[in-house]
């Protein structure tokens, strides 16, 4: 990286509020797009975006990325193959549904019922959570994160359980949808950036940059357009 001045960033581009690629303009936006630009600027480097998907994130990352960003959850499976930065966000899984049905789907037991249609994107921690916790419900796997919430609005499915951060943003942009207790999620999880294992110098640098960004207004500026005045830890 020092010689090429190129920061290779793996990202799915389909997980707002963290990363998004507009299908028409190809313009990127999101919290971690802004954060990647900040990291690259600190290095005097340019970004080389490496597109990936959730099911291919790890092999694509191992094949040639300096960092993976975009709402990546810390997990032991991923930690077996890569390192993580310090956490950028602490949250958990929580439901999102039609505002008229919030009280109907506010516990795991209420969602885990025959006849409930629980939608999930393919291949990530949301699918793993749904399959582990909703064996009685009908699990609907959806291949496009950018249209997944429209299925709830259209009445084709009932509920989705995802990260609290995503539910806050979605509720902010979809008037008919409401986040269900995002400040009291079903479980505990953290998001961080994925780094190659064994490169202690690089990990220390990124953590130093991240700590500064968390305290100098960079992180706040990146998150405010998406979360508004809602404060997630």
TrEMBL record:
Q: Does the keyword DNA damage apply?
A: no
Q: Which SMART domains does the entry mention?
A: PBPb
Q: Keywords for this entry?
A: Signal
Task: Write down the Pfam families for this protein, in alphabetical order.
Answer: SBP_bac_3
Where does the record place the Solute-binding protein family 3/N-terminal domain? Answer: 6-230
GO cellular component terms, alphabetically, are:
cell envelope
Q: Where found in the cell? A: Cell envelope
Which PANTHER family is this protein grouped with? AMINO-ACID-BINDING PROTEIN YXEM-RELATED, MEMBRANE-BOUND LYTIC MUREIN TRANSGLYCOSYLASE F
Family of this protein: Belongs to the bacterial solute-binding protein 3 family.
Q: What is this protein called?
A: Cyclohexadienyl dehydratase
Species this protein is from:
Flexivirga endophytica
Gene label: pheC
